[in-house]
Design goal:
The protein is an alpha/beta fold. The protein has a single domain, classed as 3-Layer(aba) Sandwich (Rossmann fold). It contains seven helices and ten strands. The radius of gyration is 16 Å and the shape is globular. The mean pLDDT is about 95. Bound molecules: 2-amino-2-deoxy-6-O-phosphono-alpha-D-glucopyranose. 2-amino-2-deoxy-6-O-phosphono-alpha-D-glucopyranose (GLP) binds next to helix 5.
């Protein structure tokens, strides 16, 4: 694992954006894996600045990591809506090439299988952007997720529901309890991975992901087995390394 440090979150976003621009900026039609949550926001802001300055991502495809099950796509906190607002628009992506798991499908398990097939049909993800949950989850692969898991329906951990309640008026009762997520195996198939983490609340998960054993109890620890992973951290997230 390569680890790059910045004093603050904005700087971490700049570093991560520079990696992405140099890795995929010259490809005619790169395939990005995109994450939601607060972690990648500084990265998307820095990447949007590069798009303003001439980086062209209009032919890139993008696959989101995950989506809540049972939330209408037009709900402002559905990842369909978040990706459109924070990623597709600011990065100048073509909405027709942006994919998000169909969490509102009548048959979410079938939607999961379709999503895996769509990623395969695109010849896989060139560069996967990741955040990390305070409990070490990646995507919505909660503790207990198998290293070879694929896109599937999962139950959210109580900690994740509580953490994400800030997006639902602070009311954990409004947070969906199930999600569709790319599996750990799906994520590890990406040819390159950039994980961004900032803030003290991520320090423990980051330390265990980097220095602990590879274990399903800390899903991000499985990133150790990928040969092209960069963690971009601010000082607080790196404080327990
Ligand atoms: C969320 C998302 C993840 C994200 C993580 C951290 O629940 N499903 O993809 O990386 O948890 O969230 P945040 O970046 O808001 O702390």
């Amino acid at each position: 694992m390569r680890i790059l440090l910045s004093p603050d979150a904005a700087g971490a976003g700049e570093i991560a954006a520079a990696i992405i621009a140099s890795s995929v900026g010259d490809r005619p039609a790169p395939v990005l894996g995109v994450a939601t949550g607060s972690s990648p926001q500084p990265l998307y802001r820095a990447l949007a600045d590069r798009v303003q300055a001439g980086l062209d991502l209009s032919r890139a495809a993008a696959f989101a990591l995950d989506e809540y099950v049972g939330l209408p796509v037009d709900h402002p906190e559905s990842y369909h809506a978040v990706i459109a607002r924070e990623v597709t628009g600011p990065l100048g992506l073509d909405p027709a090439r942006v994919h998000v798991p169909e969490g509102a499908a009548a048959d979410p398990a079938a939607a999961a299988a379709r999503y895996e097939a769509a990623i395969a049909a695109a010849a896989g993800v060139d560069l996967q952007i990741l955040g990390i949950g305070a409990n070490g989850h990646i995507g919505f692969n909660e503790p207990g997720s198998a290293v070879d898991s694929r896109t599937r329906v999962v139950d959210l951990a109580p900690r994740t529901v509580a953490d994400n309640s800030r997006f639902f008026d602070g009311d954990a009762g409004l947070v969906p309890t199930r999600a569709l997520t790319q599996g750990i195996g799906t994520i590890l198939d990406a040819r390159e991975i950039v994980l961004i983490a900032w803030g003290e609340s991520k320090a423990d998960a980051v330390a265990r992901a980097v220095e602990g054993p590879q274990t399903a109890e800390l899903p991000a620890s499985f990133l150790q087995r990928h040969d092209r992973v960069t963690l971009v951290l601010d000082a607080a997230a790196a404080s327990r390394l």
